[in-house]
Amino acid sequence: MYKIMVIEDDPAIREELEVLLKNALYEPVCPQSFEDPAGQILRESPDLVLLDVNLPGENGIQVCRKLRNTSDVPVIFVTSRNTSMDELECITGGGDDYISKPYQAPILLARIAAVLKRSGAPAEEERTLTYRDVTLDLLSCSIRKNGREAELSKNEFRILNALFLHPGEVVSRADLIEYLWDNQIFIDDNTLSVNMTRIRAKLAGIGAGDLIETKRGMGYKLGSRE
């Protein structure tokens, strides 16, 4: 799981980014103090930084220039300043990418994935979970087997992620619902059933229809058959 540090002084935007990153299976670190942002970043040693430009005290460009004295951590500027000169200043100030507010969540996540890939951070084994010959891709939110792939919704992805994290173990319906709620996805028992039906259909479409076993009165587990 990749650690992403959010340097953003607006509490609402900071919380929004924290939820977005958690749902995308990143580990967000969101400090609320801005006395020494560069020092905080160096101490946390994140895999990537989302950095606002307009900060109290030092601005984000000054922070990035300080970082570049000792660190090559990838930096994406996320800012309401959206002119071509602002973008140029951010990039020449050491930023790896730039996105203006209000941003679209899928675009921001795509930019994060692209910068991580360029920086060499996301090794294949760290961005995927594999059981038998079925692979869950944590960055693209997809499931694949033998070259066949299916895209997953956020709910479907989270359900499969919970099962892949407990290979061979039975995960109860109650535990699945609690896991989803912990990740800001609010579903009930009926919605879980609907999502499981859709997941099974997508797994069947890639030749993995027997991957999930139902244990009556208990829950679900990844199938043990080879």
Question: What's this entry about, in short?
Answer:
With 226 residues, the chain is of the alpha/beta class.
Describe the protein's architecture and organization.
It is a single chain. With 226 residues, the chain is of the alpha/beta class. It folds into two domains: 3-119, Response regulator (Rossmann fold), CATH 3.40.50.2300; 126-222, Orthogonal Bundle (Arc Repressor Mutant, subunit A). 42% of the residues lie in helices and 21% in strands. Strands 2-1-3-4-5 form a five-stranded parallel sheet, with helices on both faces. Strands 6-7-8-9 form a four-stranded antiparallel sheet. α2 (37-44) packs across α3 (60-67) and α7 packs across α9. It is elongated, with a radius of gyration of 20 Å. The protein starts with a strand and ends with a strand. The mean pLDDT is 87.
